[in-house]
């Protein structure tokens, strides 16, 4: 069991020994709508949604930082090649949308993710993103993308609602490694992998002063301004795109997908779901 006195549980040992992860997936799958497919390909970007705007209201809670979920942006995927009917139903336009497949090193620069001792896998893109907060809170600029990392499913509050800040001798240490990496067991059917971008740097050190406690940690008065980030995809990754049409999609849907791919991703592979369903 995770100890609240530690600096976080999501480590390389936890991934390998507890979660049973043997290696990172080389490709990832996302169930989505035709409209989202077109937005991704037209913009050549991937949307990272702020965690307080997603469908799980219990995402990324912290025992010592209110509204912690608003400081994390995620892009959610499946690492499972086998089709999942619940995923088609919930995210794939009620079985009539699409499932996309992209290589896990999909961002500009095609850097491969590496697993670190704390926080799991991380990669760097050859583009920068900014997370702006209301002044006088500090904004951040980074090229780091955390992941892809597999979500851990637990109902234990020691995992679900943990502290982020540790204080010693006038210094505050911020450890957001685990933030956004745990969901309740009722979500476990998703077997989710996610990329994550955080407003606070891993293991940041701050003076334990009034500014840190009343400005930096006050995400209500000095909120993160954007609800989403849009991270550029590598053109070569889009060339490897595979699109599967949902099991209840009709000929009109297929024609629309063909139009989208013909306009934005001519090298993409198009297939149809193998699931038979009325």
TrEMBL record:
It holds the Pfam family DUF2971. It comes from the Bacteria. This is DUF2971 domain-containing protein. It comes from Mesobaculum littorinae.
């Amino acid at each position: 069991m995770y100890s609240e006195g530690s600096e976080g549980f999501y480590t390389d040992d936890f991934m390998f020994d507890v979660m049973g992860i043997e290696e990172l997936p080389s490709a990832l799958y996302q169930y989505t709508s035709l409209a989202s497919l077109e937005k991704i390909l037209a913009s050549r970007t991937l949307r990272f949604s702020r965690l307080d705007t997603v469908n799980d209201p219990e995402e990324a809670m912290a025992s010592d930082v209110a509204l912690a979920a608003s400081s994390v942006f995620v892009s959610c995927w499946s690492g499972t090649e086998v089709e999942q009917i619940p995923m088609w139903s919930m995210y794939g336009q009620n079985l009539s949308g699409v499932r996309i497949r992209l290589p896990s090193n999909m961002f500009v620069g095609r850097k491969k993710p590496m697993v670190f001792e704390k926080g799991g896998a991380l990669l760097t893109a050859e583009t920068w993103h900014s997370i702006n907060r209301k002044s006088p809170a500090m904004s951040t600029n980074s090229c780091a993308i955390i992941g892809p990392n597999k979500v851990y499913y637990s109902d234990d509050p020691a995992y679900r609602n943990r502290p982020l800040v540790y204080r010693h001798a006038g210094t505050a240490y911020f450890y957001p490694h685990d933030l956004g990496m745990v969901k309740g067991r009722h979500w476990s059917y998703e077997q989710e992998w996610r990329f994550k971008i955080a407003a606070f740097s891993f293991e940041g050190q701050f003076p334990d002063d009034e500014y840190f406690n009343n400005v930096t940690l006050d995400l209500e008065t000095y909120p993160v301004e954007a609800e989403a980030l849009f991270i550029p995809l590598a053109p070569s990754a889009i060339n490897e795109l595979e699109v599967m049409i949902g099991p209840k999609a009709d000929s009109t849907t297929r024609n629309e997908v063909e139009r989208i791919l013909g306009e934005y991703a001519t090298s993409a592979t198009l297939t149809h779901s193998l699931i038979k369903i009325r």
